[in-house]
Specification:
alpha/beta, seven-stranded parallel β-sheet, SAM/pointed_sf, SAM, SAM domain-containing protein
Length: 1262
């Protein structure tokens, strides 16, 4: 059997009939590696064998790793479950379902539209449930007999045609079925329900028991049908009994999301109590139409239930049937007697259920999950019970109460915490902004986002409140967009819980919100429904069952008063909300700082005097404290909680390195005698040496003396400046007598820091604060591979942190290491062990070698490690999000019982040693990175012995699953972009400057230029046709003399960003290098005018490209256009080339050339060959003069630097970058050599030279 045929057939056969080929096709469909598929096929694994595969066989024989085994076995179990459901007979209920009167759920039945059918529950027998509803196309359990006297038997009638008849015919049809069924139940002494609007047989696409519903013209027809009791039952006693046993009809609405037509199921309950039917046999003559359309009752005969059918008692069986009634009467009496006994009340542990649903099975509620609350109006008396919401890590609230801001939940919440108020339309993202820009625009993750879903009564200009029907017509689409954006673009799967808070009567819009979340989250996991009352819960369940089975709704629903919820949830929350915190004041005391005030300064992370005091230490177990501590020593970033726990003596002291003491000394000298209002202290640190820890230790220890804050990443400088000033002046009366603000800036570039310093100085001057008053101290923490060199440049305000330990530090680290070893294995505190060993290369090398010797290099986990190591080795502080990792590993995270299993649990032991799971509070996306950059470099070095770095990179950027994965996509693609275009710069603390990214230079050196070109082309595609990658590829090509290809890529970059000065400059550089190469290739030969056509053409194209770049408006942060350098370079070399053309190379040639360039004169020899060039060549002197003047002015007055970001794009030569005055001197000399000694008739041209250039040349000639 060919593979294509088997791939088609395995889905059509039951798994127990699969051959080896079918199994192979199924394995491919679930993403199993081909090598493992071949091994299983060779072992003759058929469908039957598949069901018995054991973990040991897959590990030892097939050589699958833990992750792959878990994946296969989970998929196998899902297959078996679906197969068991398929084998269930639609006619035979399972015992458990029958006893509980709850139908089994099934997924093998399909509607006409192809959707899966679900079994649903019956209405509760003999109860009028106003909130009971059925869902169209769901299934009721197949019709049943009367095995148990009290558990009702069921009979279905579709009435799919009869309901269309007139009222008289419909009443007769209903009466026939009801009276016959009732008679049978009364004779069997068994409860029963007959349902109309349910399929009683398989017909077309409809299944037996399928809910179809019928439209009602008049409900009274079904009530009046019972009037036939008097004419159809035998005798007045039987008629009276029938009236007492047959209940009036119940009308249950059928929900159908595909149509607005209302349909119903009509049900009649039969309850033949022993006191009514004992010792009696009942007969009924069902009504029928005569030939004259009159209704006449047939002969009265007894009926009984035979299984799921209603049959007549024949004359032959009548005596025996009557004799058996006594036994049935006795059984009925016993059943009724036992049912009257008070059953032991089953009480589900609502507290445990609530906590499991909210924490996904964890013992405590921390900040590892975000919460989304969907709520309607909360009654005023319950608003005192919302503290648990204030303490939650609340992402957003969908609020259907228009008065929430003035008198509801929103107003109460805002008294304690800040929130941004939005409408549904704000989440539409109609502009299709990038996720990062959209998040920034709405300030998500900084403040709770409060979304008013049905207008705001206190906001006349906003959306108006509307009724349910209008809401569904006008706002349901907006809601759908909002939910989709949150679930698909902002929050990763399983990172949040959606809590539906039902405090008032449930309305359809709130249920629609449930439908949308249920669909977007692919099921009920991480959904919780909390109801204040049983009535709200029932109504919500009846409406929500359209998308979610009622049995599932029961599993995720909790009924509990809000006051009980508040106390219950607060009991497991690790922190309590602090409405106010405290800050130090100039007088030496403290002042209050409200949370809502703090939230307005959202560009700063403010460290208060009582930082972390909101933590409930009594709720933290010793294991949780130890995990917090060990996370830091494994390489995680230090948290304020680490310092707090150390102060509380709950964990060991945190070592203070020498750099801490040095920086503290500098600060102690600055504060009493500042030289300026804004001072700076700089900490340069090698990556992974603990510089960030030193900086945060300084803030922690000074939070009682000065006001301390960390500047958040990505914040506008003007905003940071404004917030820093407000923090300084908070609750202070005299602007000249305020405590200084200590601002920590971590890994902000020099441009950002300098501009912030300048703006703070401007504000101080504007406010007329005494310039001798110290207002701000910038504590700048910056990575550098050579921190000691940078420290020597400014020793008075700079400290260096390196991997090398001083003599004073070594015993501190040794002692701490021994303490940690008592509680942890050495491998799991590797980062601290490496630090203690001063990161000796031999130690790191041996550790990595031993680890890789135990590693299976063919697994997906090892592939992932290669990716992370590659990125972290070349891109500072890079990582891969946990969501990307799961996608790469092909893992489907699951919920087993109540506990959520993180994907890290499935890592190999080797991977757990070197990968750290980041859980920074500053980001909503968890991520993975190598524990230390030196370990990453060594890993990459040893891994690349088997797989070259170029192949690792190609595998990474061509992995569509990773590249297209939407969560944290912007950051992931930025890391890839930095890998390919970010250069090393000594000015940033790197050891040397590079012309291209270090990775591209490594590939070029190890594998050749073509491999680097192939990688750049693949990166261009992976980065969505990024213009700057195309530009760098053009640079790579022209520096390797592949000019035609370089020109194509430069043009491609220009087509993507036609107004970018750097890209236009690169186009000029292509022509410049091409021209220089052709010129240099001439050797000593004096070319003829004809031979010079190509060279001059390319040179002039280069000049035109540079001039086009010069005319393009520069970026806001770029004040100088480097294309002037390119124009001067090409122009000066072009002059040299023209001077060697045979026409101008003789004794009088220079004079001839100057006449040609500066006058209307054209030599006959060049008149025709250069006819396309005359005009531009005659403008050469003027253009060169202008360019030289521009460069001279810039060097004389502005001394312009370009930003760090633009340094990656700058194509200037090293001399132009680092010694521009020397370059200008050389080029000016070339210019002067041609244009200074010109004949008298050209004196006018001399007068056109710029004055500054003449002065400059004059000064150089002295």
């Amino acid at each position: 059997m060919d593979s294509g045929h088997s791939e088609m057939e395995w889905q059509e056969l039951s798994y127990d009939r699969w051959t080896e080929s079918h199994v192979s096709s199924w394995l491919r469909a679930i993403g199993t590696e081909e090598t493992h598929i071949k091994k299983l096929k060779k072992k003759k694994v058929t469908g039957a064998v598949l069901t018995t595969l054991q973990r040991e066989f897959l590990s030892n024989t097939v050589r699958m790793n833990t992750v792959q085994i878990e994946h296969l076995l989970r998929k196998r179990d899902e297959l078996l479950e679906s197969g068991q459901e398929t084998n269930l007979s639609s006619q035979e209920p399972c015992d458990a379902a029958e006893q509980a009167n709850i139908p089994t759920e099934c997924s093998d039945s399909l509607t006409s539209s192809g959707e899966a059918l679900r079994f649903c529950e019956y209405r509760k027998f003999d109860q009028n449930e106003k909130d009971c509803r059925y869902v169209k196309h769901n299934l009721l359990h197949p019709e049943t007999g009367s095995d148990n006297m009290l558990v009702p038997c069921h009979e279905y009638k579709s009435l799919e045609n009869a309901h269309k008849q007139d009222s008289k015919i419909l009443k007769v049809k209903v009466a026939i079925e009801v009276l016959r069924f009732a008679c049978a139940c009364m004779n069997m002494r068994a409860n029963g329900t007959i349902h109309f609007g349910i399929m009683d047989k398989v017909k077309g696409t409809h299944k037996h028991g399928e809910i179809i519903g019928i439209p009602l013209k008049n409900q009274e027809d079904f009530v009046d049908a019972l009037d036939y009791i008097e004419s159809c039952f035998k005798g007045s006693n039987q008629q009276s009994d029938a009236r007492r046993c047959i209940r009036n009809p119940q009308f249950i609405e059928v929900l159908d999301k595909e149509t607005t037509e209302r349909t119903w199921v009509i049900e009649y309950d039969i309850i033949p109590k022993a006191a009514i039917v004992k010792d009696k046999i009942y007969s009924v003559g069902v009504p029928k139409f005569t030939e004259k359309d009159k209704v006449k009752c047939e002969e009265k005969i007894p009926y009984y239930r035979a299984g799921a059918n209603t049959k007549r008692v024949t004359d032959d069986d009548l005596v025996q049937f009557i004799q058996g009634l006594r036994e049935k009467d006795q059984q009925r009496e016993e059943a009724e007697a036992s049912s009257n006994e008070t059953p032991q009340d089953f009480r589900e542990d609502q507290k445990r259920k609530l906590l499991i649903l909210l924490t996904c099975g964890k013992a405590r509620m921390d900040n590892s999950l975000y919460y989304i609350v969907v709520t309607n109006k909360i009654q005023p008396e319950h608003l005192d019970s919302i503290d648990f919401l204030v303490n939650m890590n609340l992402f957003c609230v969908f609020d259907f109460d228009p008065d929430s801001k003035t008198s509801g939940l929103c107003g109460t919440y805002k008294k304690q915490k800040a929130a941004n108020l939005h409408f549904l339309k704000d989440y539409a993202n109609d502009n299709r902004s990038e996720s990062s820009d959209f998040i920034k625009s709405l300030q998500l993750f900084e403040k709770t986002s409060w979304i008013f879903c049905n207008g705001r009564s206190d906001f006349p200009g906003g959306e108006q409140t509307c009724d349910e029907t209008t809401w569904i017509r006008t706002r349901k689409k907006k809601l759908k967009k909002a939910v989709s954006v949150i679930c698909n673009d902002i929050l990763p799967r399983r990172s949040f819980v959606v809590l539906f808070l039902l405090s008032s009567d449930v309305e359809q819009p709130l249920v629609e919100t449930f439908h949308e979340f249920y669909a977007e989250m692919n099921g009920h996991d991480f959904l919780t429904v909390l109801s204040e009352s049983k009535e709200n819960s029932k109504k919500f369940s009846s409406l929500a069952q359209v998308s979610c089975p009622t049995s599932t709704l029961r599993d995720i629903s909790v009924e509990m008063p809000l006051s009980h919820v508040d106390a219950t949830v607060q009991s497991i929350q690790l922190s309590k909300n602090q409405p106010t915190r405290t800050l130090p004041v100039f007088s030496g005391g403290l002042c209050f700082f409200k949370s809502v005030e703090e939230a307005t300064l959202d560009s700063l992370e403010i460290i208060s005097v009582d930082q972390c005091n909101e933590t409930k230490l009594e709720n933290m177990t010793q294991k949780e404290i130890q995990q917090t501590d060990i996370y830091f020593y494994r390489g995680g970033k230090i948290d304020w909680l680490n310092f707090w726990l150390a102060d509380k003596r709950k964990c060991g002291d945190i070592i203070k390195r020498d750099a801490y003491k040095e920086a503290s000394t500098i600060l102690d000298n600055i504060v009493p005698k500042p030289k300026r209002s804004v001072e700076s202290v700089i900490i340069y640190h090698q990556p992974g040496s603990g510089g960030s820890t030193v900086a945060r230790q300084i803030l922690w220890d000074r939070k009682n003396k000065v006001r301390c804050a960390v500047v958040k990443q990505g914040k506008e400088i003007t905003t940071v400046c404004e917030h820093a000033v407000k923090l300084r002046e908070h609750k202070e009366n005299d602007k000249n007598n305020c405590l200084p603000v200590l601002l920590l800036l971590e890994d902000h570039n020099a441009d950002y820091t300098d501009e912030l310093r300048g703006q703070l100085g401007n504000v101080i001057a504007t406010k007329k604060i005494n310039p001798s008053v110290l207002c701000f101290i910038l504590l700048i923490c910056s990575r550098s591979n050579d921190p000691e060199r940078l420290c020597r440049a400014s020793p008075s305000q700079t400290v260096a942190v390196t991997h090398k330990l001083s003599d004073a530090e070594k015993p501190l680290f040794s002692e701490k290491l021994e303490q940690l070893k008592l509680e942890n294995e050495t491998e799991f505190i590797l980062t601290f062990v490496l630090m203690s060993e001063e990161f000796k290369s031999s130690y790191v090398e041996d550790f990595v070698k031993n680890l890789l010797d135990k590693t299976d290099h063919s697994t997906l986990i090892t592939r992932l490690i290669r990716f992370v190591a590659l990125l972290y080795s070349y891109v500072d502080d890079s990582y891969i999000s946990a969501s990307h990792c799961e996608a790469s590993l092909g893992m489907r995270v699951y919920v087993n019982g109540a506990r959520h299993h993180a994907f890290v649990e499935d890592f190999t032991e080797e991977a757990k040693l070197i990968l750290i799971h980041l859980r920074q509070s500053s980001t909503h996306i968890q991520s993975i990175k190598i524990i230390h950059p030196l370990v990453a470099k060594e890993l990459l070095g040893q891994l690349s012995e088997n797989v070259p770095q170029s192949d690792i990179a190609m595998d990474l950027i061509t992995d569509k699953v990773l590249v297209n994965h939407r969560f944290d996509q912007d950051t992931f693609l930025k890391f890839i972009k930095d890998l390919f275009i970010r250069r090393n710069k000594k000015s940033r603390g790197d050891l040397a400057d590079t012309a291209f990214s270090p990775f591209i230079e490594h590939v070029t050196k190890e594998c050749g230029v073509q491999k680097a070109v192939d990688l750049m082309k693949a990166a261009f595609i992976a980065l969505r046709n990024d213009a700057y990658v195309a530009q760098q590829l053009a640079r790579l090509l022209y520096t390797n003399f592949r000019f035609q290809e370089a020109l194509e890529w430069a043009e491609k970059a220009k087509s993507l960003l036609p107004s970018d000065t750097f890209i236009l400059d690169t186009l000029g550089q292509v022509y410049k290098w091409w021209f220089c190469h052709l010129f240099d290739s001439l050797g000593q030969e004096e070319p003829s005018p004809e031979m010079g056509i190509e060279i001059i053409n390319i040179a002039l194209k280069g000049i035109r490209a540079f001039r086009a770049s010069e005319k393009t408006p520069t970026k806001e942060n770029v004040t100088f256009n480097s294309s002037y350098y390119g124009e001067v370079d090409v122009g000066c070399r072009l002059l040299k080339f023209l001077s060697v053309v045979d026409v101008f190379s003789n004794n009088t040639g220079k004079t001839e050339l100057m006449r040609y360039l500066l006058t209307e004169y054209i030599p006959a020899e060049v008149h025709k060959p250069w006819q396309d060039f005359h005009q531009q060549l005659k403008g050469l002197q003027r253009n060169l003069s202008h360019a030289l003047e521009y460069i001279s002015e810039d060097l004389s007055y502005f001394q312009t630097d370009i930003s760090e970001e633009d340094e990656e794009l700058d194509a200037r030569d090293p001399e132009q970058l680092y010694n521009p005055r020397k370059w200008l001197t050389r080029k000016s000399a070339v210019y002067a050599g041609f244009f200074c000694n010109i004949p008298e008739e050209s004196d006018e041209a001399v007068m056109t030279w710029p004055e500054q250039l003449r002065d400059f040349l004059h000064s150089k000639s002295r």
